Amino acid sequence: MLTTILIVLALGGGTSAIAQSSLPGDILYPVKISVNDEIRTNMAFSARAKAEAEAKIAEDRLEEAEKLAIRGDLKADVKAKLEENFKKHAERFLLRIKQLGDGDKANVALDKTTDFGASLQAHQAILFGLAVKYPENKEELNDFNTSLNETVSLNASAQEEAESKVANSGNKVMVQAAAEGKLGAAENKIAEVRAYLEKIDASAEVKMFAELKLKAAEGFITEANAKLQAKAYGEAFILYQKALRTAQEAKSILNGFTEIKIDMNDFFKIGDDDDTQEEKDSVNASTEINASGEANDDKVGVDGSIDVKINN
After folding, report:
1. CA 137 to CA 129: how far, in whole Å?
2. Number of C-beta neighbours around residue 154 at 10 A
3. Which alpha helices (H) appear in the chain, and where do they start and end?
4. CA atoms within a 13 Å half-sphere pointing along the CA-CB vector of 149
5. How many C-beta atoms surround the C-beta of residue 102 within 10 A?
6. Helix (H) or strand (E) holding 309
7. How far is residue 246's CA from residue 218's CA, in Å, rounded to a whole number?
8. What is the Cα–Cα distance from 164 to 186, expressed in whole angstroms?
9. How far apart are CA 23 and CA 296, in angstroms?
10. Rounded distance, CA 121 to CA 113, Å?
11. Using 50, 70 and 90 to split pLDDT, how confident is the model at 94?
């Protein structure tokens, strides 16, 4: 820590900003993780702000692993350190979520776990795509994805707990208001992602996948509207939340695939008869990217869902 502080002082105040784009192995990377990350968390004063900071730092470690894989520099020891740091900040994120508690803060917890979950889903897809595209780092990427699956599961549990707190609060008027508010949020998110979809420079395959997720989100809204009409407000709230989450996942997928520039055809060929034996053998430990929220059999379904299983 002292060494990194001395580096910052020696090189000037702009060093911290420059370090933010560094990767493991770069001279300024210690500044990024020992100074920048500490500043980011220490300057966050509320549980919500701290959760957001921890989530972003965890996502940074995933992005670093992906960029190193593209360069062919994701060595086993570097992967292990990134994975350890990712887990540390993901665990801190989930701890902050627990600290938010009940009442209005349960809604905040739900929003934060939804955003984090959508980002993790996108990174799962990216890590798998990179393992296909850069086989020299396949083992490291698949190991990281296996670890990521554990965090996805823990985050999903936290999300379900927050959903339950809101949907089963016992105050019917409040639950109705929460459901109606979530309807507006889901509709706005779908409209936002559709507008983004039109202007973003992404492949036709990526855009098609995002559109299928948006159609799935609209399907959840249709189901939720029926529940709302029947005054089943808690069920309506959960379905509207599912629609919002699915639309957010669509945007995260768009961002991730566009930034990393993975060919979506790597996904659409899974399960084809002309796959190599190595590709067919990549069926172990699960990574799921699913537009409808339901599992499929190692292929892309008509609803836009993909169930990919990864083998080390």
Report:
1. 11
2. 16
3. 2-11, 15-19, 29-31, 37-42, 47-71, 76-100, 104-133, 138-167, 172-199, 204-229, 233-260, 265-268, 277-280
4. 16
5. 11
6. strand 306-309
7. 9
8. 18
9. 36
10. 12
11. very high
pLDDT of 254 strictly over 70 = yes
3-state class of 293 per DSSP?
coil
Taking alpha carbons only, the member of 292, 304, 255 closest to residue 62 is: 255
Instruction: Specify the residue for token string 């202007």.
Output: 199
Query: Is pLDDT at 240 greater than 50 in this prediction?
Result: yes
- Extract the tokens encoding 54: 């921890």
- Backbone torsions φ then ψ of 160, nearest 5 degrees: -65, -40
Average pLDDT over residues 213-233: 95
Q: Is 197 exposed, middle or buried (0-12, 13-18, 19+ CB in 10 A)?
A: middle
Judged against a pLDDT cut of 70, whether residue 296 lies above it is answered with: no
Per-residue pLDDT at 260: 64
Rounded to the nearest 5°, which phi and psi values hold at 201?
-90, 90
pTM for the model = 0.77
**Three-class DSSP category at 275:** coil
